[in-house]
Design brief:
By secondary structure, the chain is α+β, with helices and mostly antiparallel strands. The chain has 3 helices and 5 strands. The mean pLDDT is about 85. Strands 2-3-1-4-5 form a 5-stranded antiparallel beta sheet. Helix 2 (about 70-85) crosses helix 3 (about 105-125).
Length: about 120
């Protein structure tokens, strides 16, 4: 089965602290595990950190299949996350293609699935 890595990040809101962002990042990662293998994105090491690995807040990667049903699941998971957390946007990056998603309608969701599928196929070549 062919797979592709997709970066998924969401926008922080005014007043979000590191604790809230960490919780939301874990929630998104947990949701995306339905679609594929998820990893938090490591930050560049800070010289003062003494080797403690830090992870980016509000961003994960998911290794998912290029199969259309997985693409639909990926978009469905993202739309559900946005419905639970109004006011946020999600940025998807597949290779050189970047998409921003915020509260799509059903029609827009169908278009989004096609756009993400095309981006994944283009990024997979």
């Amino acid at each position: 089965m062919s797979q592709v890595r997709v970066e998924v990040a969401f926008t922080p809101l005014t007043g979000d602290d590191d604790f809230v962002l960490d919780q939301l990042t874990e929630e998104l990662a947990g949701d995306l595990r339905e679609v594929g293998e998820v990893r938090r994105i490591p930050l560049a090491p800070d010289p003062a950190s003494k080797g403690i690995a830090e992870l980016a807040l509000a961003a994960v990667t998911v290794l998912t299949s290029v199969d259309p049903s997985y693409v639909q699941s990926l978009v469905d998971v993202i739309v559900a996350f946005l419905q639970r957390h109004t006011g946020r946007r999600i940025q998807l990056r597949v290779g050189d293609v970047e998409l921003t998603i915020d509260q799509p309608t059903r029609g827009e969701t169908a278009e989004l699935i096609e756009t993400v599928r095309a981006a994944i196929e283009a990024g997979h070549r």
